[in-house]
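The pair is quoted verbatim as follows:
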Amino acid sequence: MLQLVDFVVRNRFFLVFVLLEVLSVWLIVRSNTYWGATYFNTSNYYVAKTLAFSNSAREFTKLDEINADLAAENARLHAQVTSLTQRQPLDAPAGYVPDSAFASRFTYTIAKVVDNETSKANNVLTIDKGAVDGVKPGMGVISATGVVGKVRFCSANYSVVTSILHSQFMVSTKLVRSKEIGYAKWPGKDPNLIDLIDVSKYTKIFKGDTAVTSDQNSVFPPGIMVGKVQNVAVHPNQTFYNITLRLATDFRNLSYVYVVQNQQLVEQEDLKARTLEKR
């Protein structure tokens, strides 16, 4: 308290000067219409700027929460779209009615990417969901834009996913326009590009054609984006195209993913194993 009094005493002339200046400005604003309007507009401008900055800062602190909400909404929409497309397949013959359990067999679990690789020959990523969340090895993983990979290992709270950017990973892929089916396989170079192999050259393929997961796939729902055709080449002595796709998923900026569970996968795999045993 004594220090405050001492400060006022030592600076009393300066403080009186500042007080008189403020009083003078106030009197000018009150008695002069022009200066009053100028003060009003200027103060409103800076108040608006301050409020805008405050709102931006507040929204920035909530980005994680907003992203999580958007991811949850995307998971719900993925489930709805998959179920609808399976109940009413566009290329199904007249009279075909799929079983309701088959149409709704895919469910989605949201996960956040906590570690990611893109520069190796065999890349993996780690997500923050594991066995306690119902995640199991063999489940597919997608992003909001396309295919990501397949779960390889699980702990209680984390899972390691084999990325599509892995030399041993392949996914059955269909070209939407031509209906041709091949396999997407990464050549181990550019993380934005992937090869589409085993597509017959006796059909027309165009640059920009969309490639999605095919129906011949028990891990991924059909119709999930893989990429778009960037280059098409064919050699005279080959019966297949050399096709390069630009991946739909941007692996360098991957934040949230969706673990896909096929509720009928065990039944499908058991039946397939029994078939192989009988051969």
